Each structure stands twice: as structure tokens, then as C-alpha cells.
Protein 1
Amino acid sequence: MTTPSSPDHPVLVLYAGGTLGMVASPRGLTAGGNMDARMRGALANLPPSRQARLPAFVVKETNEPIDSSAATAADWQRLGHTIGKTLRNYAGVVVLHGTDTLAWTAASLAYQLQGLDRPVIVTGAMLPLEAPDSDAQANVELALRFASEPRLQEVAVAFADKLFRGVCVRKLHSEAADAFASPNYPLLGERVGDDTVLYPGRGLEAQQRGAPRFELHDYAALADGGVVRIALWPGIQAWQLAAWLADHRVQGALLEVWGGGNAPENPELLGVLAKATGEGKLLAAVSQCPHGSITIGHYAAGQGLAEAGVLSGDGMTPEAVLAKLVHLLAQPLDDRERRRRFLTPLVGER
Ligand code: ASN
């Protein structure tokens, strides 16, 4: 069991960037500094009874806070290493992150920090801390409270009164404060009145806590486009698919197929997929439908995907699949082992 938070064992807050800490500039909102004072200033507006329930925390800024639309796998990796290196000194971690690619980062952190024995909570906001009616203060408060909850032992996302499994979350609204959802997995917890509640049995610690084994791999080789994301559209041609998959720099692909796991029964198109898997590329499919999973081969129209060696992503989010492909391809594993691990739930992602 981890030590509860205290002034000697505080929660670490890392500001990676995003609207939450942004300030106005002539070119529009941009990542601001001085986060420690600004966060404490915002939290000082909470009623005293809620302030009293916040854990002790220290704030650190990552080297260069960014708009998360610019994040790459190299940023996920840096964050994973920073957390892995210092986690032992803290009761838990809060990552303040831009919302645009928050789901990808949360998924990647979950793979990198397997066997986590304390909470790592990713949050952000749709409005800056100082904006009128900002959601930032409430999200930070929620994240801090869950980050000091020793029963929670996984990467989670705290947003708009809800706590989601990090590897199952998606940003589904571009404006509303309630921007995130976890289409195929129930909430891990939520705010109820002034309390934060965790739902027993839904957490990873109760389901599949393996031995702690951080997998902080080197994503450098994949940071520049080694994994691609292709959504099928009616009329997609084999040559279009080949334009992505035949490039030797591409080592993996997320395919967003139709419905329950279907693709056109077009031998030329399926031949492009088979050729890529034959070359050792890792191809995985999920549905374009935001809810539900796929069963490749349930329809004849999906059989070709199975024959071409495309792996089923079941009910995983596209973000969780892409981050998993990056994670597995960065490791010195043979093709068989990569495929086996892709199909194995590592952190409750499938
Ligand atoms: N563009 C911002 C970001 O992802 C959006 C936000 O944080 N609400 O960094």
C-alpha cells in the first residue's frame, strides 16, 4: 500500500500545456507560465471546506508547455519517463494537459506505466484558469482529490466531475465542458455533491494488477510517422491504401473499418493489407462507430480482414490502439510476440 499524501509525500502536478494554463497572445491563446501561483490562486476561491480536502501538492512545469495539438509520441515518452523517474517520491501525479490529444497521452502513459501502484490523473480544461466560468478550477480540484486516493492504481482522466479509465477515454465534444466520454467502459468514479466516489471492482487494481514493470521504451524511431491511422470510406481504392502502407517507414497502422468489423470484399484492397502484414507490419482494426466492438469475420465482408492478418481491436478506442501500436513497435519483440501482446489486455484497454 502506498503512503497517503502529506506535506512530505505530496501529489506531483506536472503542467504539460493546454488551455487550462493558457494566456492571451496576439496570435491567440498560448501556453502560459507561473502555474504554481496561478493554480493556488484559483483553488483559493473554493469554499474552505473543499480547500481543506485538497492534498498537499508541488507543481512542476515540463520543459516547454505546448498546445497538445502539437504533441508527438516523443512527448508521451518524455512524460512517461519523467513520471516513472520520480513517482516513488509522491502520493500520486496530476498531469495538466491540453484536451485535444489528451486521450492519446493518457493511453500511452497507461502502457508505459504498467503495474502502477498509485494514481496518475490526467486532466485539462476547455477554458483557461482565469477565464470567467472556467472549468479549470473544478477539474484541477477533482484531479488532486483522486490523485491522493491510494485505492486508485492506474492512469485515469478526471474531467467535468467524472473519472475515466485513461486508456478508454475519448474527447467527443469540441466546446462543451463535459467534453470527454468513455464509450465502452463505465466510470471509475465521480463527484457526488462534495464527495469523490470510486466505484469498487472497476479499477485495474481489482482486475489485472500485474507485477510493477514500467515499460519506458524509446519511441524515437516511431515518433516521425511509423504508425498511421486510416479510416475507410465508401469507394476507397487499393492504390490509396498502398500509398500509406507500402512506405517502408510505416511499421504499423490503425484501420477504422465499418460497423461490427467489415471492409470491402475487394481482393486488390485486401491484397494490400495482406502484403503489409506479410512484411511484418502490425495492422489493427476498430470500428468507426464510437460505441461497441468489432468481431472480425462475423460477416463475410469481414473475413478478408482476418485472412489478411489484421488484428481485432475489439472495443478499444482508436487512441488506445494507436498508442499501443507505437508502444509495441518500439520494443525489441518479434512479430509473433507483438501480435500476442496486442491481443492481450495489458491495462484494461480491451
Ligand atoms: N488546443 C488545446 C490543447 O489541446 C485545447 C484545450 O486544451 N482545451 O492544448
Protein 2
Amino acid sequence: MKLYVRTQLEQIIEKLKEQQVIPQELTPHFTVERTKDKSHGDFASNLALTLAKPAAANPRLLAEKIVALLPDDGAIRKVEIAGPGFINFFLDESWLSRQVSLALADPRLGVTTTEAPKVVVIDYSSPNLAKEMHVGHLRSTIIGDAVARTLEFLGHKVIRQNHVGDWGTQFGMLLALMELFRQQGREISMELSDLEGFYRQAKQEFDASVEFAERSRQLVVELQSGDKNCLMLWQEFLNISLSHCQKIYDRLGVGLTPAAIHGESAYNADLPLVIRDLDKAGLLTENQGAKCVFLEEYKGQDGNPMPMIVQKKDGGYLYATTDLAALRYRQNQLHADRILYFVDVRQSHHFQHLFSVARKAGFLAETTQVEHMGFGTVMGDDGKPFKTRSGSVAKLADLIDEAEKRARILVSEKNSEMSPDELDEIGRVVGIASIKYADLSKNRTSDYLFSFDNMISFEGDTGPYMLYAYTRVASIFRKAKLVEGTVSGEILLGEEIERELANQQIQFAEILNRVAERGTPHLLCAYLYELASTFSSFYKQCPVLTAEPEASRNSRLQLCLLTAKILKQGLSLLGIGTLERM
Ligand code: ARG
């Protein structure tokens, strides 16, 4: 129950910060250790000693303060303060055993829904539709989805918003090329099946032909003024591009549907009003003909405030203007309590600026939380942003194909007797799990190295390892020809490793709450990986099916069952499907 003690102490640290006993920015490095001599309890911690200096307090008195803040949940039987200020914990094993039984009897595995449900708007995926989805969209799509699922599971109302880039000048040249191809009698839907190639051709044409460039600009103006034919052409383009995206979402098993699409174009009508209201709030300044918002707190390198440009000299609006309108919509129409943006960290300046301007303009309620959940870049082996071998940006669809192909090979090496159909199906699940788990298990804010070799492997902290760990636990039940609900009885925790496993099992709720709070699915991955590893030690040390007496066998079977259920539920919250056999 080391983790239990540690979690309690971490919560107490937060309380001590609130009470201003210790400074806000402190992250104390303290230990929780298993005691050698059981007369000193089960665990001991040096927390009070490490806090004494920053709190400028006597460690024994501080220890008393900590002890007084411990919860009264029955888990800790007794606490003693020893020596200069060590805290010794005596745990109640029967409490732990009861918690496991309760979790097992609960379809939610002991995870209660929140008492304070919030409306959480999650902006994720949000690709630009002019091109095909590429590797840069992977992280937003996968991480955002895992956090959405976790928040939903905890009882919040999640509204997914796919803020696609479906507006702007680059659509001019795309529409111009569609027009040209139509005149040439070519089949547009065929031409658009390779969006990437289509974009390239349009760009080439734009750079090479003055006439084409002129027509492109004309079409932008027509589009913006709501010309019917132009809008039809644009809609046709969008439909095809969006269906590409939907195919990717479906393959990845991501919970984004057309209902979540609320792209930049949806805010067109509101943009002049955003400008008007910024002006009313006294925030607008004209600078060389452009309308800008200057905030004192955002200074450039020269020490002068940096502008947020909201309208260009020619009247055109910008990314920031649309984001202000989107924020208002999320606040007023969707009634958000919390708005999360899963967008590349390289846009962090944009979001800090956006949030400040929105607050100053009164677009956001005082209590609404807005958070940019930034993520790092997907890197290649060469230490540069990930590219294909030919040096172009990697299309997401191609990466998924490749992962599925490689996973099929990996699985077939383990299972020579599997039918081709079965291999296809399992390869698909394992391939997707590999990509997703590799991304989710890394700290969101760091850059992350994309490597098929590392992710499509049974070795280490990988998707395939996790799926395999699950099938192994599930197979114990199959082997014993047992079905759920047939084993019961008290959970017996005589062995240290059994206590360790049980202790981890009951931390599930705490972990999910952290993921929901911080938008960090890697915490859930780390937890599940650790659970799987502890299970594997338990299974080595403790016979299950051959355990004697019957009560011990039943108890251990229940520990297996709860492990399987947590792995399955946890992976499903990460958006990863499990297999019963592989
Ligand atoms: N379309 C943008 C891009 O590809 C991301 C949009 C993120 N969401 C937002 N509300 N700005 O960079």
C-alpha cells in the first residue's frame, strides 16, 4: 500500500500549500519506505523532515500537523511519530481486502462519478482541410480523445469540437483548380482522392500562372461574399476532405463524428461583431491600417507590447479572430465550464494571448477555466521532425497502413497456426494499439520519437505488451473454464505481492481523476503498465489455479479478475481495444 500512503501524503502537501505552511512552488522529494522491523509499522516516511526547512518549522510539530490531516477512511490503523520526525504507518489489511471486494462487485470498478459535473468543451484534432491529415495531427487526435473519454467516464458532459481549418485564402487556389479540371471534363472526385497531390498541383499552378493566381484571388472574394456557385464548389471540396478525416478517425477508433465538426467557417458571421465588441471594450488600436489588441503583459524582445492582429488592412480576419469567436460560442452557446485545447505547444503564445484578450474583453465568465494542453513535436530517428523516407510530410493514412502491416508480421511470428483472416484482424487491432499507446504513454509536453521498431514490439512499455498482458490474465479464466461471477469469497492478502497488487488496484480512481484534471493520459499508461508488471510478479510467485486451500484459490482468482477488468477498462479509456486472444 505504498502507493496509497504516497497519494495521501501528496494530497496533504497540497493542503499545506493552501494553508501557506509551505511555499506554493515547492515539490518536496520525500520517501515512503517499507519498514524492516514491523514493530515500527508497515511504512515510514521522511516527509516532515524534508519540509522542515522550507516551512521553517520543527519537524516533529510538522509531523503532527501531517498526521492530523490524514483521512479517516479506515485504511490506516495507527500512526506514530518517531525519532526526529519520521512518520510510521500501521495499515489495516482487512480494509484493503474490503476495497478490492467492493471494486470487483462494482461495474465501475470502484470509480465513482464526480459530484460536480462540468460541461467540458474539448478542441482536438482540428486539421486544416486543404490538405490531408498528416503526422502532426496524430497527437492532438489521440491524446484529446483519451482525455475526452476519461472525463466522460467520470461523469462530466464532454462536447467535442473539431475546429477544422475550412476557410482562408488557400481555398481560392483549390477552387480554381477544381474549376479548371471541370472545364477539362475531368472527374473531380477522382482528382480529389489524393488531396495532397491536388494541393501540390494547385500551388504549382498558382506560382506558374498569373491568370490562375488572379482567378484564385477572385474566388476567395466570391467565397467570402457568399457567392452560391462558389460555395457549392467549396462544399464539394470539404465533403471529400472531411470524409478522408472520418476514415482516419474510424480506423483509429477515435470518438469524433461529423457532429463534432465546427470549423473556422462557422464563425464568419460573428467576426465583425468580435471586432465591434473588442472596440467597445476599449481594446482596439489601429496600427498601419490593421486592427490590433495590445496587452502590456505580452512584450516582444524589444520590450514593446506585441500586437494580436485581429483584422488586416484589407479587411480580412485572422486565426486569432476566429478563435475569439469560437471561445465566445463555447462560453455562451455551449455553456462551457472548462475549455481544453489539444494543440501543438508551438502555439502556446497564441493561446496565452487569446485567453488574456478574451478575459479582458469579457468573452469568458470569471469561473470558466481555459487551458492549452500543448504537446510536443513528433520526431524522427534523425532528431528532426518526423518525415517519410522521401523527405515529405508523413500522411497519417500511410502511417496507419504501415503500422498494421508490421503488427501483422509481429503477431504471425508468435502464432504460426492463425488463419489469414484472423491475422488481418489481430494485426489491425495491434497496429492501432501500437501507434496510440506509443503516443499516449509519453509525457504530453515533450517531443516524442516516432519509431515503428520501438512501438511494434512485445518488449517493454508498448501497446502490444499491454494487449498481451491482458490476454494472459483473461486466459487464466478460460483455462479454468470459469466465467465471471463464479468465484467469490474473502480477499486474502497473506503475501506481500498480493497486498502490492491489491493496493495498486484500488488506485485506479485516483489516477483517472489526475488524468482528467491535468489532461495527461501518460499517467494512466504508467499505472496500467505497473499494474501489469506487478501482476506478472504475482503470477510468478503465487500459484493461482493450483492454490490450496479453495479459499486461497478463490481469492487469487478474484485478484486476477480485477486486474483484467482494470486493464480492459483503462485501455478502453485510452481508446485502445483489447483482444481475448493473440
Ligand atoms: N487548424 C489548426 C492547425 O492545424 C489547429 C486548430 C486548433 N484549434 C484552435 N481552436 N485554434 O494548426
